[in-house]
Design goal:
13 helices; Aminopeptidase; seven-stranded mixed sheet; 309 residues; alpha+beta; 14 strands
Length: 309
Amino acid sequence: MDINDGKSIELKDRKFIEDHFNKFPQEISEFSFTNLFVWSEYYNFLFLEYKGHLLIYSHEYLKKWKRSLSGRDGTIFFLPPIGPNPVKIIMEIFKDLKNVEFHRVPEPLITNIREASDFEAFNIEILEDRNNWDYVYQKKALINLPGNKFRQKRRWLNKFLEQYNYEFHVLTEGLVEKTLQLQIEWCDVNECQSNEDLIEEQKAIKRALENYSNLGFSGGMISVDGKCIAYTLGEMLNKETLVIHIEKAHIEYEGSYQAINHFFLKEFGKNAEFVNREQDMGIPGLRRAKEAYKPITMIKKNIIHKGIL
């Protein structure tokens, strides 16, 4: 394998990458073409096919934005291989390349890696990556907000429905400009320019919306008196799960977050049983918000790398 053969992720690669995800369905939120494409400039993603597996990796991400776990210069950031035998490919890469880290490795794959014959020989170290665990919910519960545990969420939703002259819209190309305007206003309120993570998120959202028709995901927005006050973007991650990539709302409209969540889930993912609302990135407020919706499970992810022998 020559990692210098990797290509950057472009719109024309959508079918090729989605074919791999369809053949080998995934649970982690990173593994949709939309997600990889809109974040590819931040991560400097490259991809190639190797022995029937899709490999997605970056020479630059750890160097530019993070410090590698080993402290070694030139460490390569890999996502888990997509294909019939990812453990075999991981072990081959550990054998062939010196400075490698695999990120977002789900728990079932970790179990298989521990059982691999080369596990001890490579002195593989495993680190829980709690900040990147995905939150998974029952779709019906998020729509209906039943029982006492959702009482406050239900109150906020009902308050929105009673208080505002609202309209829910399926996002179309003609509505993208209004959605972008809300995103700009949201960034002003939340002072994105002083937060590097929010700056990068803003770039990713702009890329998603500007390529909305070509990416094939779904969007919804709520307008009040003609003004966009909330929007969300999502798509099917696998046959059972709808993933929510982005959700933004004006906090001055009480219950707007509950409302956009409610209407979007009623409209999309008719066959979905679960909703993946991605990770909290270790942000305390975001963690509290995601926990408040009572996830039924977490998709646990890990980082693996070779220890120093």
